[in-house]
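During the no-cost extension, the postdoctoral fellow (Dr. R.K.) reprocessed legacy sequence entries with the updated structure-token encoder. One reprocessed record is reproduced below for audit purposes.
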Amino acid sequence: MAGVTRARAARPARLLATVAAGLALASCGVPQAAITAVPEAAAQARQDAATASPSAAPSPSASPAPTPTALGAGEGTVNVLALRGYAEYGGSDPAVNWIAPFEQETGCRVRLTYTDRGERFERTLAEGSFDVVSAPPEVAGRLIAEGEAAPLATGLIPHYRDLPKWLRTLPAFTAGGRVYGVPYLWAYHQIGYDRAQAGRGAEPKDLGALFRGPGPVLLRDDPLTIAAAALAIEGEGRPEDPFRLTPDQLDAAAGLLAVHGEAERSFWRGTGDVVRGFAAGRVRLAQALPYQVGVLARAGRPVQGVTPDRTTGWADAWLVPANAAHVNCAYRWLGHVISAGVQREAAAWNGMAPANPAACTGRTRRICADYRVDDPDLPRRIAFAVRPTADCGDGTGRCTDYAEWRRRWSELVR
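Re-encoded structure tokens follow.
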């Protein structure tokens, strides 16, 4: 059995249907297979204001450990740092366990540590020594820039070529022609709206509806939400890449975020917050995930989602730290978690799109439909998150870095 530290992992996707069931929605069509959960990160503390110095573009400044050219025998142990819900051993639900098969197949015992997004992730990473970590884009960018992530020999990772090229080559975890991360799950933002409150013919057209239209509005509690506001900037000030903002563009985006007062604007952290808000009639518009909208629609609520011509999203990836002690087991873990079977379980468990399209069968087929995984044109409409850097990512400009984004966000969300 896996050695697990920290708290028990939560079950985000199943939380959504549990909330719906608690509001007497399950009887309207949400299958029981997609429900039952405990709250995830709804109780996590707000992210602390950043104190770090300006960050650089993801151009490694140190020399990571050599990339292997072949795999040897497993070392017997792999230390895994995972976002909650990203590595399950049956502790939350005995039927949800993709760690035990890995241990049985490889002989690599998993020592698992759970953490949450934001500052807590960085603290947990600093406190331990890990062989593989599931990193959100803002963390991946820092690890790559500071030489703390090892470049990967992707030819040694089973199933890697099963992932779409557009996902494998996202800038969040590639740099200098090298790959540092294996994409795991991804998502993007829609404009979720309550048809009963919006009225006939009032379908939102673009992200401006979230920041200029009437409330109540629910936004994701994350500094990278600033990028969504940046896409709503009108005129010549609108950035081509919403994660590369000059000081003036950051001011404009922050100004849009502040248009709605506290009475008309709130923020969601846990994935069930959006479902609860719409189900209780407290929300008119939300920066929502397609799966959240899908749960509500299938439960008979008058909620729809609009994907604007341009929106924001993100992909989380598995990285191998440069000082990893158990590289052979780490590479075996990378191949395991992107196999179709594990991807199917992880996507259903977290309510996010799988990196491996072959996972879009069974109960995951509906989630893949929510995210339009088979739409080849969709990725072009999504600005996928990268860590904001002071040099605009290519050394050619003067931009605001992630520390500044976090500072501005902490001023907005108190």
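Confidence is low (pLDDT under 50) at residues 5-10, 22-63. The two ends are 41 Å apart (CA to CA). The remaining legacy entries will be reprocessed before the final report is submitted.
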